[in-house]
Amino acid sequence: MKICNNNKLLLKNNKNGITFLILVITIVFVLILASTITISFNNIVRSTNKKEFANEINTLQKVIDQYKFMNGKYPVVSEEIILSLNDMNIGELKQFTDEPGYKNKEVVLKQINLVEAGVDNITRGVKREYDELDIYTVSESTGKVYYLKGEKFSGIRYFTLTDELKESLNL
After folding, report:
1. Residue 89's pLDDT is what?
2. Residue predicted with more confidence, 133 or 69
3. Domain range holding 69?
4. Which pLDDT value is given to residue 104?
5. In terms of pLDDT, which residue wins out, 60 or 20?
């Protein structure tokens, strides 16, 4: 009879062991699932931000081009901004190769007057008091629009509409 009680005792311990093992496996599964969902969500957010930036700068480029066509000049603030390219990596520098000052690592830009251009529905480039680089600029030489602060995606700061950004918009 004692043997039977011991068997029941062993069987009872075994059930607790199996239950604990199932609990651990379930917890590990839930953690893996949660981390996968988090990573996917972060990738979606990054992709959305990139498309939003590309769309905004593409729209602004079209508005600026149309303004220049209609008025013979760009809607700019009169003072020049000289952008130094010295601290940029190769991916960032490639965005300025069309500019006359590229070889000297200095590009001349002018701030876009968004009110004069009739643009009021953008999230960047509104020159907040705490961030002087948060402005859109245009090169009067090439007509390209640049976001002076830049937006960083995958380790590269984007200042203008590149071929990669155009692809994200399917342009």
Report:
1. 86
2. 69
3. 2-169
4. 87
5. 60
Structure tokens at 59: 């729209």
Q: Supply φ then ψ for residue 10, to 5 degrees.
A: -65, -40
CA–CA dist 119, 70 (Å, integer): 16
The residue type at 101? G
Task: List the one residue out of 146, 142, 143 whose CA is nearest residue 134.
Answer: 146
Q: Tokens 């960047």 appear where?
A: 124
Confidence grade of residue 108 (pLDDT, cut at 50, 70, 90): very high
Predicted confidence band of residue 130 (pLDDT cuts 50, 70, 90): low
How many structural domains are present in the chain?
Answer: 1
What local confidence, expressed as pLDDT, does residue 2 receive? Answer: 43
**DSSP character string of the chain:** -HHHHHHHHHHHHHHHHHHHHHHHHHHHHHHHHHHHHHHHHHHHHHHHHHHHHHHHHHHHHHHHHHHHHHHSS--EEEEEEEEE-TT--HHHHGGGTTSTTTTTTEEEEEEE-HHHHT----SS-B--TT-TT-BEEE-TTT--EEETT-EEETTEEE-S--HHHHHHHT-
Backbone angles phi, psi at 15, to 5 degrees: -60, -40
Distance CA 50, CA 166 (A): 10
